[in-house]
């Protein structure tokens, strides 16, 4: 349980105490396709489901409440269907409040997965029922996810759980600079911790 300093009450989180020295708060996990991530704004605002041991999204409101308190780092851990792993790390992470559509703010990249998130820096969050991207059509609807789309994406970790190579274009669990637009990852975790 964490209690942000805004005095709005606490909420449960999943802590990763093993990866790169630990101290991470996990806000997204994909691992088996049991949870539907093709959802609307309200679900991404509050988070889903309540079982933090499986697949989940912590909620954009909760993520904002955490990230506004101090400077955070972001780490994205990825695994393909063959068991190969890679990661992307960013030396700063923040999102704006809902009034600014949870706009993403990230810093300098390091890691082994390639930088598939910098394109999305400064972009607002979009869902299938709230289109905030740069296209005339909805990237969230076209690519079956919810993300900080631009026009449209290099990453789509909340996309459909296709598991491996798939024929449809860019609608899976995508990290383009590691596996391209037609490969859906097996496992992902997005996590933050305070910067030193």
UniProtKB/TrEMBL annotation:
Cellular component, GO, one term: extracellular space
Family matches, as Pfam families: Fibrinogen_C (PF00147)
Query: What species is this protein from?
Result: Branchiostoma belcheri
Q: Cross-referenced CDD domains, in alphabetical order?
A: FReD
Q: Give the matching PROSITE patterns.
A: FIBRINOGEN_C_1, FIBRINOGEN_C_2
Give the source's domain of life in one word: Eukaryota
Query: Keyword Disulfide bond on this protein?
Result: yes
Provide the protein name: Ficolin-2-like
